[in-house]
Write a structure and sequence with these properties.
Layout: E1 11-14, E2 18-23, H1 40-52, E3 60-61, E4 70-76, H2 79-90, E5 95-104, E6 113-123, E7 128-132, E8 145-156, E9 160-167, H3 174-181, E10 184-186, E11 205-213, E12 220-224, H4 232-241
Parallel strand pairs: 4-11
Antiparallel strand pairs: 1-2, 2-4, 3-4, 5-9, 5-10, 5-11, 6-7, 6-8, 8-9, 11-12
Length: about 250
């Protein structure tokens, strides 16, 4: 299987069947059918086609990354590859890791690592997730789903903590809502309790890596990227984990 070299730093991995690309803050992972939003796959498609040397009949995001979040996004070029990768995500066979810069709040965990297991329900009208304990009698019905993630501290400062987060499930707004529920409020995330917004409207959450089985070769691929053009705060985070295993 041929792999392609490219000069576009947003294309992290590319072959004839799929790509992993860098999603910028503000872009979306699903078509909104209005043409007003920045859909990552459409933006990156011309560059991918130029490198491949032929047009693509389709290019679709396999999973979601929230609009204010940056990071590694997996794209499929055929329906068969899309279906196979979607099934991997559905069955929990993939692995993702995130970098989160969170505000230091009283009552937040003092341990170096931990696990959060709760029930989650996403309110589509208000575009916000609600979290409840597993044993809460209110968390019943098909709208409530299990949500779990693991976190570890990569570093701490006077005002912020650097977290590495590995979700076990892929619920909408899961990382944002679950971290906030225990006192780890993501910097800039006003929806879940941040003190102030970030310039440009993003939040300090970055999808740093994705690991999956290639549907054609069955090789286990791990693709990762730190924030592109990091500011001093992201650079400080990268400095805490640089040189370590990415996943």
């Amino acid at each position: 299987m041929k792999q392609f070299d490219n000069a576009n730093q947003r294309i992290l991995y590319l072959d004839e069947h799929l790509a992993v690309v860098y999603k910028n803050t503000g872009e979306i992972c699903e078509h909104d059918h209005t043409g007003k939003s920045m859909y990552t796959a459409d933006i990156i498609k011309p560059d991918i086609e130029k490198i491949l040397g032929h047009p693509l009949s389709m290019i679709e995001a396999v999973h979601r990354i929230d609009q204010p979040v940056s990071g590694c996004l997996l794209l499929a070029f055929t329906n068969d590859v899309l279906a196979a990768l979607t099934e991997q995500f559905k069955r929990g066979k993939t692995r993702k890791r995130y970098m989160a810069i969170v505000e230091r709040r009283p009552g937040a965990p003092s341990e170096d690592s931990g696990r959060i297991q709760q029930m989650i329900r996403f309110d589509r009208k208000n575009r916000k997730a609600r979290i409840l304990p597993h044993d809460d009698p209110e968390a019943k019905g098909r709208d409530w789903k299990r949500a779990s993630l693991s976190w570890s501290k990569a570093g701490e400062g006077d005002r912020y903590t650097f977290l590495l987060v590995t979700p076990d499930t892929g619920r909408t707004h899961q990382i944002r809502s679950q971290l906030s529920s225990v006192g780890f409020v993501i910097k800039g995330d006003l929806k879940y309790g941040a003190r102030r917004s970030e310039p440009g409207g993003g939040i300090r959450l970055h999808a740093q890596s994705v690991q999956f089985s290639h549907p054609i070769t069955h090789d286990i691929l791990t693709v990762s990227s730190f924030p592109i053009d990091p500011d001093p705060l992201w650079s400080a985070f990268v400095g805490c984990i640089d040189g370590k295993e990415k996943v």
